[in-house]
Design brief:
By secondary structure, the protein is an alpha+beta fold. Helices cover about 30% and strands about 25% of the residues. The protein is built from nine helices and 14 strands. Strands 6, 7, 8, 9, 10, 11, 12, 13 and 14 form a nine-stranded mixed sheet that branches. The chain has a five-stranded antiparallel sheet with strand order 2-1-5-4-3. Keywords: Aminotransferase, Transferase. It holds the Pfam family Aminotran_4.
Length: about 280
């Protein structure tokens, strides 16, 4: 009986922790967030956000990239002429939540309010990192608006990913009007060909991912060439291995890509992944 009560207490505590977040200077224990019915964040998705993985339980860890995530937010704040938050309060909320979650999502509203939530790493992340995932190419209509910013209006990538899940895939690949591959719904693309890595250029209208930028710099410091060129239909057929990266999953190989006509197969165990993984 005591073991049952102890297990129930653990589950209750886990649920309690999961339903906490930081909002506007306060730690809140709830499953809901109260917003005005006229809040532009609610009406139009007028927010910006960044999602980080906390390493070594520290915002100052080399791989957490706290400063880069704050710089991403500041870049959008200045571009939109929005009010800056109290950065000390943002850090305070992040410090509290990282005690419970390895992944933090920091959202800012136009008037300077901050909202920080946390979540756990996907349970199957290690298996996906080892063996790869399936992706589906979706229609060009599912493009991200304001591609160089992470805004709360994330409907297109969300819809694209749901389409891929319904087709038994784990991710969606977004394309431009010419059919060039741009990025996945949650990360930046990488491909291996001719002895070095390729990634779509920022000029194509993709998110300048933090992991992407750091990997490019790191590979170049290792005397490794990185090709930033459009991923045409001809080019993607020539890759031996491909993957996508973001701050949460690090690097995930892709073994199959379903297209409107036919599928492409790649090697998720290619030796080239060892180099990228050594960055982490």
């Amino acid at each position: 009986m005591e073991e049952v009560l102890e297990s129930a207490a653990i589950v209750t505590e886990e649920r309690r922790i999961y339903f906490i977040y930081w909002y506007n200077g306060q730690l809140i224990e709830s499953q809901t967030l109260e917003l005005s019915i006229n809040d532009p964040g609610l009406l139009y998705g007028a927010t910006i956000f960044t999602t980080m993985r906390v390493y070594e339980n520290s915002l100052d860890s080399r791989l957490t990239h706290w400063t880069l995530h704050c710089d991403r937010l500041l870049f959008s704040l200045k571009a939109f002429s929005w009010q800056q938050p109290d950065w000390n309060r943002v850090r305070q909320g992040a410090e509290i939540l990282l005690q419970h979650f390895p992944i933090l999502r920091i959202t800012l509203f136009p008037d300077g309010r901050e909202w920080i939530t946390g979540r756990l790493l996907p349970e199957d992340l290690s298996e996906k990192q080892a063996n790869g995932v399936v992706c589906t190419v979706v229609s060009a209509e599912y493009d991200r608006t304001l591609a160089s910013h992470k805004t709360g209006n994330y409907l297109s990538p969300w819809l694209a990913r749901n389409i891929s899940l319904n087709l038994a895939a784990q991710e969606a690949i977004l394309v431009d009007q010419a059919g060039n591959w741009l990025e996945t719904s949650t990360g930046n693309l990488w491909g291996w060909r001719d002895g070095f890595w390729w990634t779509p250029p920022l000029t194509g209208g993709i998110l300048p991912g933090i992991v992407r930028s750091q990997l490019v710099k790191w590979l170049q410091s290792q005397q490794q060439q990185v090709k930033e060129e459009p991923w045409t239909m001809e080019l993607v057929k020539e890759f031996t291995a491909i993957a996508y990266t973001n701050s949460v999953v690090e690097i995930l190989p892709i073994h199959t890509v379903h297209q409107p006509v036919g599928s492409l197969q790649y090697n998720p165990h290619h030796s080239s992944f060892q180099l990228l993984r050594s960055f982490f």
